[in-house]
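Dear colleague,

Thank you for sharing your sequence with our group. We've completed the structure prediction you requested, and as agreed, I am returning the results in plain text so they can be pasted directly into your records. Please verify that the sequence below matches your submission; if there's any discrepancy, let me know and we will rerun it promptly.
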Amino acid sequence: GRGPSAFIPLGEILQEGAESGRQQLLLEALVSEGRVDNITMVMGLHPQYLSSFWKTQCLLLRMDGPLPYHKRHYIAIMAAARHQCSYLVGLHVGEFLQVGGNPAWLQGLHCAPRKLRNLSEINKLLAHRPWLVTKEHIEALLKPGEDSWSLAELVQALVLLTHYHSLASFVFGCGINPEEEQDGGRGCQPPSPHSDSSPAPDDSTGGCGGRDAMREVEMLLERLKLLQESQLEEEGVTQEEMASRFELEKTESLLVAPSDVAGPSPQSNVLCFVEDPEFGYKDFTRRGEQAPPTFRAQ
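Please find the predicted structure tokens below.
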């Protein structure tokens, strides 16, 4: 768990040798930012990817565009908070203040201008159930008025939202540890489902996550047992069909969090940027249910 990633040995991240391209990228990051954050250190294991990512970040956050710099960072905070990624929230709170953002906005979303608060609904949908976005959501934001968005502003805002939703997944998936000046290692635990009776994760050891995984395995074995029993009662069920049923049950059990299972309570410094925190992912292709209409674009 020491170093930039909880999953990748520090020696592997710091290895030297023929990776001159990687070293050059890290040096550029140090010169432009004054430091090299843990995301850059880990992503530097894939220099070409880091190069593309770095250019994208620069265009989104620092180059000319319709949105002021402080609002770009606040939108990043809103997006990361939807996924309870306190690592990114903390990172962009610092950036927000550095570019002259109003500290009062950091008390919570309710203190931000109405124009930014109006992004909350589409931020929520894009983060958890993007297939529910309709043209009406876009029209509502573009509707003329004191707090309306221009089309150029909205395009940049939506790109920022989706960029940081994705980056939160990278932070969780690579076990990115907080920098020393952040919250001491407790901030970037991915939210994993747990029952109301089990404690929320309160440290970085992953103990609660391990218990959750064991419960999932037990549930999976119980479902497998029921399937095997049903096979004895049915005639003409082939082995291939049973295998496909098992795979479906396994996927639903391990990859789709049931909607009635509560997640851990977000930290207050993240929750304050979120409206409707109970809203989360819900599978839209469950068997026996009518799939909602989806908004399709080219």
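Summary note from our side: The chain has a mean pLDDT of 77.

Kind regards,
the structure core
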